[in-house]
Amino acid sequence: MGEKEIEILEILEKNGRLPIEDIAKMIDLPVSQTEAMIANLENQKIILKYSTIIDWNKVDRNPGVTAMIDVKVTPKRDVGFDDIAERIYRFPEVKAVYLMSGAYDLSVTIEGNSLHDISRFVSQKLSALDSVLSTTTHFIMKKYKHDGTIFGDDEQDRRIVVTP
Known about the structure:
Elements: H1 3-14, H2 20-27, H3 31-43, E1 65-73, H4 82-89, E2 94-99, E3 106-112, H5 115-126, E4 132-139, E5 145-146, E6 149-150
Antiparallel strand pairs: 1-3, 1-4, 2-3, 5-6
Helix pairs in contact: 2-3
């Protein structure tokens, strides 16, 4: 992968809505070549999806509940953790699954409408899987920063004003 493709990826990761003309100017290439590079990155499944980060607490709607679950599992012969991770990420409630180092093997992020939804998922679906030995559930109470985006009101300038 070339330097220009990496530049495109870094630009799109920060703002996937930038017009193609702006991206082309930023990397100093013609628009047609930039479009072709982006299409190639999409075809290779390097760019998987474009998404938006929303502060649901500012919307008049139930923001739901998000939980991060630490999962201890028994890996299976010849497939390791991949098989159980795939079984878990296929549940529609699951938003992310990561293989972790440390006391637990997998970190699972799920979303539900209530604490009861999360509880039901853990007790009836996740813990019921053969390879799952134990779980620890952590509920997200407030988001401060997600994917590099700070949540909350506009940041105030906290610098001390100095006058001569």
